[in-house]
Design goal:
Helix content: 10-25%
Shape: globular
Largest sheet: 3 strands, antiparallel
Order of helices and strands: HEEEHEHEEE
InterPro entries: At4g02000-like
Protein name: DUF4283 domain-containing protein
Strand content: 25-35%
Distance between the termini: 37 Å
């Protein structure tokens, strides 16, 4: 457990991952009063996902959330993505159920034809 001096610092730490210890993911979650450690709770993890080459027209928070929903539950869009400051990829934080198989490919029907990644 970690105690942060300010809410701002805590939110920054939670949003900026992923973090690794000895090449293994360190999973950080907001503590809740009724939290219990069980197998199901450990199967849902927060993970930053990059969409390489995603057309910039799909970088709005709403459009990117729809695209990312094919992988997991959207939580937060990376600030450089929403501000289009790093255009080589779009990045979004998702809750992913790692006990289920992940989609290996996502196809989006665009006006200029299908985009897949």
């Amino acid at each position: 457990m970690f105690k942060f001096q300010t809410q701002c610092v805590k939110e920054r730490v939670l949003m900026e991952g992923p973090y690794y210890v000895n090449n293994r993911p360190l999973i950080l979650n907001q503590w809740e009063l009724d939290f219990e450690i069980d197998k199901e709770a450990l199967s849902i993890v927060s993970q930053w996902v990059k969409f390489l080459g995603l057309p910039v027209g799909y970088w709005s928070v709403d459009a990117l959330s729809k695209v990312a929903s094919a992988v997991g539950q959207p939580i937060h869009t990376y600030r450089f993505t929403t501000n289009a400051k790093r255009i080589s990829y779009a990045r979004i934080l998702l809750e992913v159920d790692v006990s289920q198989p992940l989609n290996e490919q996502i196809v989006i029907e665009t006006p200029s034809g299908p985009w897949d990644n």
